[in-house]
TrEMBL record:
Protein name: Oligosaccharyltransferase, gamma subunit
Ranges of biased composition (kind: Low complexity): 37-59
Its job: Subunit of the oligosaccharyl transferase (OST) complex that catalyzes the initial transfer of a defined glycan (Glc(3)Man(9)GlcNAc(2) in eukaryotes) from the lipid carrier dolichol-pyrophosphate to an asparagine residue within an Asn-X-Ser/Thr consensus motif in nascent polypeptide chains, the first step in protein N-glycosylation. N-glycosylation occurs cotranslationally and the complex associates with the Sec61 complex at the channel-forming translocon complex that mediates protein translocation across the endoplasmic reticulum (ER). All subunits are required for a maximal enzyme activity.
GO biological process: protein N-linked glycosylation via asparagine
Family note: Belongs to the OST3/OST6 family.
Organism: Ceraceosorus bombacis
Cellular localization per UniProt: Endoplasmic reticulum membrane
InterPro entries: OligosaccharylTrfase_OST3/OST6, Thioredoxin-like_sf
Topology class, membrane: Multi-pass membrane protein
Region annotated Disordered, chain positions: 34-59
Signal peptide: 1-30
């Protein structure tokens, strides 16, 4: 009995973790899909303007921008206004400037912007980490939100986003005439990192040091599937061994109660955490907030991130397992000391997890007045 009870507990844990891992893997894969931009247009060029900044003696990059790029976790400069856009793209420059015009934080529904945001961060981070000490031409990455640069969008006659512009140097050995911008064609080339890196390599004159992100979706899918298979083998092997010689129906029904219980609980946890909503809406896995910090929870009840689903699903799974432990596994303990300890431990886990769920709900709705521990 003790062996079967332990196998059942292990099966529940492995199956729940496997479902959550597969859920996370599918969300990561969905976030990497290549949508098509809803609009297209020819390359636009900004009006000429004078640069009022002093150039750095080595790179020509204004010191303020150079400092911000070095302190940013991804090496991206957030342009606060149209003047900063003019400053970083106009005048005499012996560096290349890559500017992304987007609408992630502008209160505009722009799924292509959300999809391309992590790709752009990966590109900038790859350059920041791989180009230190390099003698190659200097490149600076920047970003202008629609809410901060509406005048720039109007000047460039843009009614869509995202728009990726490459400004070549106007002085030095890499200079290209007037330094007019070259627009990346999302409709033709797509939203993936390797295509953008190839575009930058062609215009920079050397191979852009792009580092592909770690394939979390593949790893999570593998471990999720492996966990489900191992859990099934652990539970079914003893049952099948006992049922040998009693017919196919007896073997098929061996251990079915625990399997269906775990599968039903795992399905309920995944669906109540918002997995279906993310699959239908194609929500991004996470977004970058102010100062480059990742945001895992979207404010309000009409928005949600994939990471939020994974975290809330883990909370629900822990709540479900702690409740099952208190009602099924703990009463089955014959040792009074272990039984009492199990009550204390699982009660604390249940209440602490429920407190964290309250805290997440307050992030979604700051006016919610209740809390438990946190």
């Amino acid at each position: 009995m003790a062996h079967r009870r332990l196998a059942g507990q292990l099966l529940c844990v492995l199956l729940v973790l496997s479902i959550i891992a597969l859920d996370c893997a599918s969300l990561v894969s969905a976030a990497k899909k290549r949508p098509r931009s809803s609009s297209s247009g020819g390359a636009a060029s900004p009006g000429s303007a004078r640069s009022s900044s002093s150039a750095n003696s080595n790179s020509g990059i204004p010191p303020a921008f150079l400092q911000q790029a070095s302190t940013s976790p991804h090496g991206i400069i957030d342009l606060p206004n149209p003047q900063s856009f003019v400053q970083i793209t106009s005048g005499a420059r012996n560096y290349s400037s890559v500017v992304l015009l987007t609408a992630v934080k502008s209160g505009v529904s722009c799924q292509p912007c959300n999809t391309f945001a992590p790709v752009y961060e990966t590109l900038a981070k790859s350059w920041k980490s791989k180009s230190r000490g390099s003698s190659k031409a200097d490149v600076i990455f920047s970003l202008l939100e629609f809410k901060d640069g509406q005048d720039v969008f109007r000047q460039l006659q843009l009614s869509y986003a995202p728009v990726l512009l490459f400004f070549p140097p106007t002085s030095g050995p890499k200079a290209r005439g007037s330094g007019q911008p070259i627009k990346y064609d999302f409709n033709r080339l797509g939203f993936e990192g390797p295509e953008v890196a190839s575009f930058l390599s062609d215009n920079l004159g050397f191979a852009f040091p792009y580092v592909k992100p770690f394939p979390w979706s593949t790893v999570l899918s593998f471990f999720g599937s492996a966990g489900a298979i191992v859990a099934s083998i652990i539970l079914l092997a003893p049952k099948i061994a006992q049922a040998r010689g009693q017919g196919v129906a007896s073997i098929a029904s061996a251990g079915s109660k625990l399997i269906w219980t775990a599968l039903c609980l795992a399905t309920i946890v995944v669906m109540t955490s918002g997995y279906m909503w993310n699959s239908i809406r194609g929500a991004p896995y996470l977004m970058m907030g102010p100062k480059g910090k990742p945001e895992y929870f979207a404010a309000g009840f009409q928005n949600q991130y994939g990471a939020e689903t994974t975290i809330v699903g883990a909370f629900y799974a822990l709540l479900a397992f702690s409740f099952v432990s208190l009602t099924v596994f703990v009463p089955a303990q014959r040792d009074p000391v272990r039984q009492r300890a199990g009550v204390y431990v699982w009660s604390v886990i249940f209440l602490a997890t429920f407190s964290l769920l309250f805290a997440v709900f307050r992030i979604k709705n700051p006016s919610y007045p209740f809390r438990l521990f946190f």
